[in-house]
Amino acid sequence: MVTKARCETGQARALNTYVKLMRATESVTARAHRHLSSIGLSFSQFGVLEALYHLGPMSQSEIGQKILRSSGNITMAIDNLEKRQLVRRERNPADRRYLIIHLTEKGKKLIRKIFPSHAAEITQKFDVLTVAEQQTLGRLCKKLGLKDR
């Protein structure tokens, strides 16, 4: 039988863990992405470039799913990247209703230039954890992220 005190303890523990997770996420994200503003990229714009660089051309909705952003946010990010000639939209030949987003040569050149320093920055932020701790954190985050799917 679960008592009220045990529920409150479980709730307090869950809320405390959630606050720690969110603070850590915000802190690491802010520090790791600070360099993006110096090159005029938002977090979402960088996410689009990085996804296209590593996964290849895809639709706006696929990009949104990969980088966990809303369709409106992705549209604006792609609009701004297109204005800078870093990406281009192309009709899907199999289904003309859909647009496929491609990196331009200029976009490839930029992401190739900035990704290594970004990866080094992330690596440095996680160096506070041992290899085993990083693996455990990765497993736990995946488990938490998949709950209720």
Question: What does this protein look like?
Answer:
It contains seven helices and three strands; from the N terminus they run H-H-H-E-H-H-E-E-H-H. It has 149 residues and is mainly α. The chain has one domain (33-146): Arc Repressor Mutant, subunit A, CATH 1.10.10.10. A three-stranded antiparallel sheet has the order 1-3-2. A hairpin with a 2-residue loop joins strand 2 and strand 3. The radius of gyration is 19 Å and the shape is globular. The two termini are 28 Å apart. The mean pLDDT is 88.
Task: Specify the number of helices.
Answer: 7
How far apart the termini lie comes to 28 Å
| Biggest sheet record | 3 strands, antiparallel
| Topology pattern, helix = H, strand = E | HHHEHHEEHH
CATH class: Mainly Alpha
CATH topology (fold) name: Arc Repressor Mutant, subunit A
Identify low-pLDDT runs: none
Strand content: 5-15%
Oligomeric state? single chain
E-strand count: 3
Helical proportion, percent range = over 70%
Considering the protein shown, what is the CATH homologous superfamily? Winged helix-like DNA-binding domain superfamily/Winged helix DNA-binding domain
Order of strands, main sheet, comes to: 1-3-2
Class derived from helix and strand content: mainly alpha
Taking Cα atoms only, what radius of gyration do you get, to the nearest Å?
19 Å
Identify the overall geometry. Answer: globular
Mean pLDDT across the residues is: 88
